[in-house]
Amino acid sequence: MENFLNHKKTKNILDFLETLTIALAFCAFIYLTIAFPNKVEGQSMEPTFHHSDLVITNKTVQYLGNTDFGQSRNYDYQRGDVVIVKQGNTDLIKRVVALEGEEVEIKNNNVYINGMELEEEYLPTTVRTKLPSYELSLFRNEASLTVPENSYFVMGDNREHSKDSRFKEIGFISRSNIKGRVIFRYWPLADLGIIHRGEYK
Fold first, then answer.
1. Residues 111, 89: one domain?
2. Fewest Cβ atoms nearer than 10 Å: which of 88, 106, 119, 151?
């Protein structure tokens, strides 16, 4: 009887370890190939995101988006997407504002794409988009700049408190330095939900 109980106990432990191993392997697979968690740091995306918000980032767009498959399904990064950007050892959360080949200009507190004002409906009406000081600005002597191939112009929604592509220190973001598109917020629970592409005109 004692041997039977010991055998059953051992079997239960082995079953638990097997289940745990499978679960961890599944989580690792998802983390490495599909999605990963991120924590929002700072105030650059307020009021859309706040410091310490926890989000899930979809990384499949990073390696499928610029393939024929991704392009045929409009699956690549688009204007209005919230993305995670690698900047040295830091991850930044920003919004895609302009795509490769587009001409970007900032004037009259607004963004202009190819000469037309971009109406960013995801921003509060009080937001003013300005260029940083001449010494810090990416634009310098240029009134407008063209986004290079395989690159993006990104900004935070909190334009007065965001270091982003307007600054020469950041500049245009190469596609290879984007980690993925933010698709879900799971903390705080009050803001739990899917993150959709920002609307604009």
1. yes
2. 88
Which residue has 């991704």 as its token pair?
A: 70
Cβ-based neighbour number of residue 87 at 10 Å: 13
Domain of residue 16, residue span: 1-33
Per DSSP, the three-state class of 22 is: helix
pTM value is 0.85
Number of domains in the chain: 2
Phi, psi dihedral angles at 99 (to 5 degrees): -105, 170
The SS3 call for residue 77 is coil
Q: Which residues contact 75 (CB under 8 A, 6 or more apart)?
A: 61, 64, 65, 69
Q: Is residue 116 part of a domain?
A: yes
**Contact by Cβ (8 Å): 83, 96:** yes
From the centroid of its chain, how far is CA 104?
20
* Averaged pLDDT in 10-residue chunks for the chain of 201 residues: 57 61 52 79 96 96 90 93 93 97 96 97 94 95 95 97 96 96 96 95 87
Radius of gyration of the chain (CA): 22
